[in-house]
Specification:
Shape: globular
Structural class: alpha+beta
Strand order of the largest sheet: 1-2
Number of helices: 5
Order of helices and strands: HEEEEHHHH
Number of domains: 1
Strand content: 5-15%
Largest sheet: 2 strands, antiparallel
Amino acid sequence: MARKRTSKSIKNACDKLLRLIVIKRDADANGYAVCCSCGKIAHYTDMDAGHWINRGCMKTRYELKNVHLQCRHCNRYREGNGPGYSMFMLNRYGTEVMDDLIELSKMICQRKQKDWLEVEKWLKGKL
């Protein structure tokens, strides 16, 4: 008998799907991409799917305009390199999208297992 999936396992699957979507969108045919925060060019295997608004905010965690390939140094050791990431966001999307993401991030988001399954289905559709 198949084991029932937990909300945590579905969330982990959603994170992996999100990373694949961002790689497909941001990397070139050879797998190289430019870090959204510092401009460094690296292979996607050496990059993270970095969030402009921290991924702890569930309401914006899977918003594609909030997530871009980012070198590991910026994402992990420079705490996301906020100034560099903000300049990227401003140049790519403008203040209206940035303001929309900020407003969205202020909303409470508590997902139950069925909600996680819907997020997973939506992400699979984006692939």
